[in-house]
Amino acid sequence: MPITPTPKIWMNGELVNWEDATVHVLTHTLHYGTGVFEGIRAYETSDGPAIFRLREHIERLHNSAKILMMDMPYSVEELMEATRETVRSTGLDGCYIRPLVYYGYGEMGLATSACTTDVSIACWPWGAYLGDDALTTGVKMTISSWQRHDHNIMPPASKTTGNYANSTLAKMDAIRAGYDEAIMLNRAGNVSECTGENIFVARGGKLITPPLSSGALEGITQNAITTIANDLGYEVVIGDLSRSDLYIAEEIFVVGTAAEVGSVNSVDGRTIACPGPMTTAIAEVYGKAVRGELSEYRHWCDFVSK
């Protein structure tokens, strides 16, 4: 999906023109993938743009940097305000937000101790990652031949730029084979997550989502969806899932900041009921929650005008 430029990008403490937000070709992270990032959304609300669960996203960004032993030059509060400032500068009612922490130009080699740590925050309009009809029509999934990272190979708890080479390989294989998205298994053969989303599977009238030990990222949208599901009276269990559990699921949906809530209509040619009743009910509440329409979830919305 093409990127639509907006007026400004925040870089190392100041807003710069979109076209001036550049880095040197010898930037360390460009060569070695040792950066961390977040995906965040701001939504249009009756009180102006609101960023969904901003604090949790920025705290996870800090945690990702800590795992990589990156010295973060800005506090959580400073980056929250920088994010609000960047959203305000776009003039958009809603947008996708991409904070990035990376090692800059000036030192080459695998060691990072002499590298600067740079931070940028960009915003642009972006629709649902899996398509605007991903909820109603569903997406066609396949189980990837590429395994998810093991915890002692690449830390899946860190949203690291280099980790996503793994996801890109799986995603491109899926697209070339005629699917919309790939589901990734871990070394034990259990379901981890999709290339960019957490997964929920309905079996026996309850929802199951894989544990962090499977290699899944600790999803902020996943957490919100679990809360909403519980509030609706659905049982949510954290547990291992095999590929066979996917093939005979009552319903499946995937969640993430970019994807929001998307239903799954098939896995490796096995048809899944789509969208299922739990998927539909949860997605309806989520859509209202992110737009500040429900008082019980309004604390998740960070209003940029404040």
Structure description:
With 306 residues, this protein is of the alpha+beta class. The protein has two domains: 8-124, Aminotransferase class 4, branched-chain amino acid transferase, N-terminal domain (D-amino Acid Aminotransferase, Chain A, domain 1, 2-Layer Sandwich), CATH 3.30.470.10; 139-289, D-amino Acid Aminotransferase, Chain A, domain 2. It has seven helices and 17 strands. The strands form two sheets. Strands 8, 9, 10, 11, 12, 13, 14, 15 and 16 form a nine-stranded mixed sheet that branches. Strands 1, 2, 3, 4, 5, 6, 7 and 17 form an eight-stranded antiparallel sheet that branches. α2 packs across α3 (76-90) and α5 (220-231) packs across α7 (277-289). It starts with 7 loop residues before the first strand and ends with a strand. The model has no long low-confidence stretch (mean pLDDT 96).
Which labels suit this protein?
single chain; 17 strands; 306 residues; D-amino Acid Aminotransferase, Chain A, domain 2; D-amino Acid Aminotransferase, Chain A, domain 1; nine-stranded mixed sheet; alpha+beta; 25% helix; eight-stranded antiparallel sheet
Largest sheet: 9 strands, mixed
Name the CATH class of the largest domain.
Alpha Beta
Q: What is the string of SSEs from the N terminus onward?
A: EEHEEEHHEEEHEEEEHEHEEEHE
CATH topology name of the largest domain, in short, is: D-amino Acid Aminotransferase, Chain A, domain 2
Task: Please report the number of helical segments.
Answer: 7
Sheet-strand content, in percent, reads: 25-35%
- Taking pLDDT < 50 over at least 5 consecutive residues as the criterion, the unreliable ranges are none
Query: Which structural class is indicated by helix and strand composition?
Result: alpha+beta
The whole-number mean of residue pLDDT values reads 96
Rg from C-alpha positions? 19 Å
